[in-house]
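Page 42, continued from yesterday. The earlier attempt failed because a stray header line got pasted into the input along with the sequence. Redoing it now with the clean sequence only.
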Amino acid sequence: MASSFGSYAQRSIKPTAAIAAGALSATVFNRSSKQTQNEIEDNTQQKNVTSTLTGFHVLRNNNSSIFSWHTPSGFSLNRNNATALCEAASNPAEKTAPYKPSDPAEPIADASNNEEKTTKPKGGMWGEEEDGLFHGLFPRRQLWRPHVEYPLWHADWDGRQPLPVESDDKDESARLTAQRDRQIRKNGVTKHIILIRHGQYDETHKEDEKRLLTPLGREQAAMTGKRLGQLIRGVNEDFGPCKVKVVRVSNLARAKETADIIYDNMDLDNFDGGIVERADPDPLLNEGRPCHHIPGGKARPSVVERTDEHHPRIEEAFNKYFHRAPMPEMPPSAAENKKETIIATASTRDSNEGENEEKLVADPKHEFEVIVCHANVIRYFFCRALQLPPEAWLRLCTFNCSLTYFTIRPTGTVSCRMLGDIGHLPHDMSTFSMHTGFNW
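This time it went through. Structure tokens are written below.
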């Protein structure tokens, strides 16, 4: 069962009710809740009253009270569970089963129907069969459910986790699987994904073909291209070149213009390494509303409709580009010769010279992709790649032409090395859309 996003649950209930959770005993809870109730009755003129019970707060404003409970594990309580616990606490003689909190995202069981319910998908948005609102914010069917309970890691998130090696002997299967996994870690290819937000653009037009980069946006893109060009070419043996295979881009004008300027400023004409492909624009990467965001108010019907329209497309883009690299056919000894693959000796002998010249060559066990797209898409990808609640995407901020950089190891683990990095841009070129600098 997937838990809620954090370890903090807040519900509004009547002053006579209270919320209990975790290892709190019924006796302590009953005594403390009575104490808290007395405090409220004795301090009717005060707007804020806090009980002495650690982690339990009562805020009183006029005739309403808000009870909040901080718990050591991630879950939320609903009013029915809280009321039941309060009744149990008031009668110590009555024994009850250990408390197990319910997931607010989980549909309430129908007690009148004892037939076994259809098993729902373990991850993603559940679809039209889910009714009601999630905490009064948006339809429950539009809430993202993780494949495994937060904060556990879903190993087969990209559908490429190898199955255990089969054997009649269980111990032998475990041994062979561990040996196979070591070879994957040792010889597999690490995939690097660099997401770049487009440069600043003219937002005064509604037509996409008119929403082009501003002069400042073009300068931002040019400096970003120079930074990537240095990354591709390398500097020396310690800061060697990177094998950038492809530059991808969304199908919106501002992103395509940014990608063109970046590519032109990489200075690849004098680069004798591998060819960097320019992929066709992909509409899946277009800007949109990937999912609802928390915190946020109740979603308007138009927002619900846009989420239904945009989420499947942006999720498809994530699944298309975020995955571990295919496992190459490579002998076990290849990793031992890593240094030899980085520094290749190119013979330049001719009739006048017989010297060898060292040439920097990219490590074949690392492959890079550059994707030029949009702020909402990048922030959603960040949450999805790190298996964080996607509804947190609006808490992040990615400036124009910033770099957000991920590594995906051959074992499937994901790490974010940069988030919204604009170190290549001076302060007077730092913008977030039409906002300049940082005082906004």
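Notes: The longest strand covers residues 190-197.
Reminder to self: strip header lines before submitting.
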